[in-house]
Design a protein that fits this description.
551 residues
């Protein structure tokens, strides 16, 4: 196999030797020449690239090493989907002999999780705990500080039973990873299109900060400070946990942890200002009927409708703290109102750009796909450990991309597949510290009590936004994507935000939003005719993740 040189580093060794220091403002900004302007569809706002439709598929809780540790080498046991890399597959910054058993600095060595072990326990992915596990860059405290040995609930009430989900590994489960026999589709998309091996959460912490960073890169500006079950969720007016948006008809957590809407700006406001169509489409946002996860009986209560994953674990389809735009007054649809017509999907009406996932496909069928679409799977398919899993996630991702590639808009569409947080799963790479925070109550990255010492004017002086957080996967699936390509430049969740801002010339969020420091995703794409077919497609089997017959 021809190997492409990657910027592979053993971060804990470099950090320990002093080769890496905590620095402020170490953003990687890809400065672009003035791009050509491309007119949008049917007189829509102009774009700086040929991308007229951007679809962001935002999944849940998986680190880069958890899905790509040994890429592109899979074990390929008999009876499981197989993956065989082409000869020109580039190398990535994954786990190699230096960090695989028996050489890993953690007390438990990394190990392969089989396809039969797809339903796992949810690991600890708290803002402070993740920083502590990094141990000043040594990356060696994952089992002790992030590992969770637990059980999951199986079956509907009143017949729920608890079953182990750590497969005998206990807290060492956090060191497990999948390969191309389980996350087969993800590996195939990486091989056929382009991926990053150097994308990070914008900040540390769980889903809500990740969801906010995707659309504004500013987790500060939310009050009041709150705790839930003794755990801080908002401190110094900054979100570090998972509060739910106050007023959402499906918010279920303690009302003391429900955040009032912020009056700050998000990407929706910037898109509206330029009359660019957009929408956030989430599974379960407005379902008419289904099975209640509370009673196990048929129901028309949207907030209770749910599904079981492959392990029989049930969850409600809609999760309030995954709906990014409900945290902002300007973009809320707290009553989950339907769009007034198909023609209004993507435009401002009573739905206010917040929709059920079914509305996206209604718009697509009517050739009314918004310019920017955020897709959130129903919970059982979003990949979140515990109630979801890689197998159900694969069904959603493959079904979505197969359908998109059959649309006439595909030739002007790019899909970005990215995850909201790492779930605490082991990853061996520590990102650069581009935004410092010195809150000794919650920051733990360096010396157990800070993430640098100077939240300066560039950071707005806002605490508890230690950046960057853990490494997560990111892929570009498009006819414009470079084929079988790995981007090693430093990017983060805010890079997706930056891509939207730059493509539609929207400007930046402001107020110390980390979009100003975000690296560019443009290296994933090639917009010249020399690259070849911009209608490039790959159809996969949602059950196996392998190439579909005739695809």
């Amino acid at each position: 196999m021809h190997q492409v040189v990657s910027r592979k580093r053993t971060l804990f060794a470099l950090f320990a030797s002093g080769a890496i220091a905590l620095v402020s403002g170490l953003g990687v900004l890809a400065v672009q020449a003035s791009p050509r302007v491309v007119q949008g569809d049917e007189g829509a706002s102009s774009t700086t690239t040929p991308i007229k439709h951007l679809v962001i598929i935002y999944q849940e809780n998986n680190s880069f090493d958890h899905y790509f540790a040994t890429y592109p080498v899979a074990t390929n046991p008999a009876g499981e989907p197989s993956f065989s890399a082409t000869d020109n597959t580039p190398s990535i910054n994954g786990l190699n002999d230096v960090l695989l058993a028996p050489n890993n600095p953690n007390t438990v060595q990394p190990f392969r999780l089989d396809r039969s072990q797809s339903v796992t326990c949810d690991q600890n992915h708290g803002y402070s705990a993740e920083q502590s596990a990094y141990d000043s860059g040594l990356m060696d405290k994952f089992p002790e500080l992030l590992g969770v040995a637990n059980t999951v609930k199986v079956g509907l009430p009143p017949n729920q039973t608890a079953v182990p989900c750590d497969y005998g590994h206990g807290k060492g489960l956090v060191m497990g990873y999948y390969d191309g026999n389980t996350v087969t589709a993800i590996w195939n998309y990486a091989q056929h299109f382009s991926m990053s091996d150097n994308t990070f959460e914008t900040t540390f912490g769980p889903s809500t900060p990740g969801n906010i960073n995707l659309i504004s890169a500013q987790t500060h500006g939310f009050t009041p400070d709150t705790t839930s079950f003794g755990t801080a969720v908002t401190v110094n007016d900054t979100i570090i946990g998972d509060p739910q948006p106050a007023g959402d008809i499906c918010s279920t957590r303690d009302t003391s942890t429900q955040l009032l809407a912020s009056t700050d700006k998000n990407i929706g406001d910037l898109l509206n200002a330029k009359n660019v169509t957009w929408g956030f489409f989430q599974g379960g946002f407005r379902e008419a009927s289904g099975t209640s996860v509370v009673t196990g009986q048929p129901t028309t209560n949207t907030c209770q409708i749910g599904h079981a994953n492959v392990g029989g674990v049930w969850s409600a389809d809609y999760i309030a703290h995954h709906e990014s735009f409900q945290y902002y007054r300007s973009t809320q649809n707290l009553q989950h109102l339907a769009p007034t017509s198909t023609a209004m999907i993507g435009r401002t009406d009573q739905a206010n750009h917040q929709y059920d996932l079914s509305d996206f496909w209604t718009a697509v069928k009517a050739h009314n796909m918004p310019a920017v679409s955020f897709l959130k799977a129903p919970a059982y398919q979003d990949g979140h450990p515990g109630y979801s899993d890689p197998i159900d996630e694969q069904h959603f991702v493959v079904d979505t991309l197969n359908q998109l590639q059959r649309t006439q808009e595909w030739s002007s569409t790019a899909a970005i597949l990215v995850w909201d947080d790492s779930d605490g799963w082991y990853d061996h790479v520590m990102g650069p510290v581009v935004n410092q925070s010195n809150d000794p109550s919650f920051d733990r990255l360096a010396n157990g009590n800070n993430c640098g010492t100077n939240p300066n004017d560039v950071s707005g002086g806002y605490l508890d936004r230690c950046a960057y957080g853990p490494r997560v996967p990111l892929l570009a699936v498009s006819g414009f994507a470079k084929q079988n390509y790995v981007d090693h430049s430093v990017t983060d969740q805010a890079s997706v935000l930056r891509l939207i801002e730059d493509n539609w010339t929207l400007g930046r969020i402001g107020d110390a939003s980390l979009d100003a420091k975000a690296g560019s995703l443009m290296d994933l794409f090639n917009f010249t005719n020399a690259e070849g077919n911009h209608s490039n497609k790959l159809f996969l089997d949602p059950n196996t993740g392998e190439r579909a017959k005739g695809g």
